[in-house]
Amino acid sequence: MTEGEDNYENSIEDNDSERLAIRNELSSLSFEDLQKLKERIGAKLYKEVVFGKKDNVRNTPKVYKRENKNRPREMSSKRPVPFLKDVVTLPKQSEIRDPRFDPLCGEFDKRQFAENYSFLSDIRIKDIKAIRAELKETTDPEKVLKLKRLLQRLNEQHKAGRKARVELEKIEKQKEDVEKVFKEGKQPYFKNKSELRVETLVRQYEDLKKEGTGRIQRHLKRRQQKLKKRSHKAPKGVVS
């Protein structure tokens, strides 16, 4: 052993003996005195005196090797995960809303709807006139048949719209009459379904009478045919 190595070992032993002596002295102190000493000399120096100096040894990264080139490479599980990951951004789709079931669109008002789309009735009347004019000039039987069907469908739509407007006006008039009677302090009379049905039939026959007697006869004939079919469909022993 050389002289330098002897001196190094002697210095280590001296340091250890000094550290042991300091520890023995500190062990006799109270916790309050130790805390004051730590605050006076600093936490770093206090740890060096009590626990000794730590050698600064860098943690060299471990190199993972494969025993065989055909084996998968071993990876460390301590690899930090990136905070943000690159994700393909898709275009934001607009939210589809159905106004029939969306409370944001408000409540459905039949009268307001009829007023907003009243122009469709005028357009339909113009289409009916144009189809009638084209029907007079057309000689092709297939085209005539198509035009007649289209004309019939437009006429039915026009009549259904007119009937709906009349019914709406009738309901509003009934509401106004009920409110008027209430304001007068009287009890209003509400008609039952059978009375309303009779009134509807009477009004329907009056409209047919205006169009001509032939229209009434055709309507009665169709009604008789419906009743006849209904009686055939009914089970035996049951009178409709």
UniProtKB/TrEMBL annotation:
Example of a GO biological process term: maturation of SSU-rRNA from tricistronic rRNA transcript (SSU-rRNA, 5.8S rRNA, LSU-rRNA)
GO CC, any one term: 90S preribosome
Coiled-coil residues: 151-211
Subunit structure: Associates with 90S and pre-40S pre-ribosomal particles.
One Pfam family named in its UniProt record: RRP36
Function (record text): Component of the 90S pre-ribosome involved in the maturation of rRNAs. Required for early cleavages of the pre-RNAs in the 40S ribosomal subunit maturation pathway.
Membrane spanning stretches: none
Subcellular location: Nucleus, Nucleolus
Keywords, sorted A to Z: Coiled coil, Nucleus, Ribonucleoprotein, Ribosome biogenesis, rRNA processing
Residue spans of biased composition, Basic and acidic residues class: 64-77
Biased composition (Basic residues): 216-240
Organism: Parnassius mnemosyne (clouded apollo)
Lineage: superkingdom: Eukaryota
Similarity annotation: Belongs to the RRP36 family.
Identification of the protein by name: rRNA biogenesis protein RRP36
Annotated signal sequence range: none
Region (Disordered): 60-82, 212-240
